[in-house]
Amino acid sequence: MKKHYSGTWDSVRTHEVPDWYEDCKFGIFIHWGLYSVPAYAPRTWELGEVPGDETWFCNNPYAEWYYNSVNVGQGPSYEHHKKVYGEDFAYENFADMWKAEKWDPDEWAELFKEAGAGYVVLVTKHHDGFCLFPSEYTDYNSVKRGPKRDITGELTRAVRNQGMRMGTYYSGIIDWRFANDPIYREEDNFDNACPTAAYADYAYMQSKELIDRYEPSVFWNDIGWPRQGVNALPGLLSHYYNTVEEGVVNDRFNGLYHDYTTKEYKYGESTRDEKWEMCRGMGLSFGYNAEEGDDKIISVPEFIRLLVETVSNNGNLLINIGPKADGTIPQEQVKRLKQIGKWLKVNGEGIYGTRCSKRENELREDVDLFYTRKEDDLFVFADVKEKLPQEIFIKGAKAPEGVIALDENVELTYRTEQEGVYLNILKNESGFRMAGVRIPGGE
Ligand SMILES: CC(C)[C@@H]1NC[C@@H](O)[C@H](O)[C@@H]1O
C-alpha cells in the first residue's frame, strides 16, 4: 500500500532513502543555461580551498556565476565582460543569444547511459532565474526565449527512454531576478536573498510545477530555501513524496531536513553512517568554461578513483557536465564519460548495488585499497601506484573460495594465511590504473 505523507515534519521524517538511490552510485549533473553563452570564468581554486569571501566571489571559477561575477564590479569576469560585450551589456541579452541549435537530447541520454550513469540531474533554474521549463510564473524561460524548447521535458523523456532516473535541480533561495545585490561572501547568499513572502510563494509554486510536470526522482534544491517559505516546506516535501514515491531530496533546505547529505568539491562533510553525494565539475566550474581545456580537467584515473573512493564510503558520485550553448558536450568531457563507462562495464559488479564494507579504505605507501561488499562478496579495488608485480596483504581477510580479478586483463595470484590474504597483482593490461577483485565469501 502506498504510504501517505501528511504535510508535517514528523510525517516527512519517516521517509527512507529508496534502494534505487543506494544502488545506482553514479549520476550526471548538468549545468546548462544562459551562462553557457559567455562561458567564462577564471581558473582559480576548488570550492573550499579559499575562504568564501571576496577572494572567492570576485575571482569565482564557477562559470554559472557569471552574472554575479560581473555584478561585483571587479575581477577577471567583470573585465572579460567589459572587453567582450561592453560594460552596459545586460545579462538578459544572453536569453536571446542562447539557441541550443545542435542539441539532441537523445544523443546526451545515450552518452550518459554509455558512461554507466543511473540518474541525471538537470539544472532547471539556476541563481540567474532563467527556467529551462515552461513555467507559468515567468516568461524568462527556455520555451518563450532562446531555444524555444522545454529543455527539461525533452531531456526527461530521453533519459527515461534509456532506463535512467531523472532529477531536477532548483535554486531555492537565490534568484537574481528578485534580488540582485552583489554577493561578496558566503553569508550574502542568505542575507542578500529576496526576503519577500511573494518570492517564497514563487519558489514553492515553481517547485510544485517541476514535481507535477516531471515527477523527478531527485529534487535537488540548492544553497537554501526562502526563509519566508520554511513553514510550507513539510507540505511541499509531503506533496513531493506523495507524487514521487521513490523520490529523494538533498540537504540544502536550511539544515531542516534531508534524505542524503552533499559535498561540493572540498566543501561539506560526509560520514559513512548515512548516504551522501559528491558533486563536482570535471574542472573547477559547473557551467561550461571555455578557458578549461583537456589539460585542466580531471584525468580518467582521478575520475575513476573519485568514484571508487566515494562509493566505498557510502556515497554517490554526481559528476557534472557543462554543455556548450549550442547543445554539444565538449569533447574532453565526452572522452572521460566514455572511459569511465568502459571501466564500469568490467568493474561495475563491485560498484553498483554494493554497500559499505566494514573494512575502512587503506591509503598505503605503495597502494590504496578501497572496499565494497555485496551479499557474501567482498570487493577490493587497488589503486596500484608502483609498477607491478605488487603484493598486497589484506589483514584478517578470508578467501574461502579464492580471489577473482574483475577484469580478465588483470593477472593475479593469491594465498591465504592465518593472518590474512596475500594478493599479488602480477599484470594489469586493462588500460586502467584501478584494478578490482572479488572475494566470494570474503570478509
Ligand atoms: C553543486 C552545484 C549544484 C553547485 N551548487 C552551488 C552553486 O552556487 C553552484 O553554482 C553549483 O550549482
Automatic annotation (TrEMBL):
Keywords: Glycosidase, Hydrolase, Signal. Its EC number is 3.2.1.51. One of its GO terms (cellular component) is lysosome. Residues 2-349 form the Glycoside hydrolase family 29 N-terminal domain. The record marks C279 as: May be important for catalysis. GO terms for biological process: fucose metabolic process; glycoside catabolic process. The keyword Hydrolase applies. It holds the Pfam family Alpha_L_fucos. SUPFAM superfamilies: (Trans)glycosidases. Coiled coil: none annotated. InterPro entries: FUC_metazoa-typ, GH, Glyco_hydro_29, Glyco_hydro_29_N. One of its GO terms (molecular function) is alpha-L-fucosidase activity. Belongs to the glycosyl hydrolase 29 family. Alpha-L-fucosidase is responsible for hydrolyzing the alpha-1,6-linked fucose joined to the reducing-end N-acetylglucosamine of the carbohydrate moieties of glycoproteins. This is alpha-L-fucosidase.
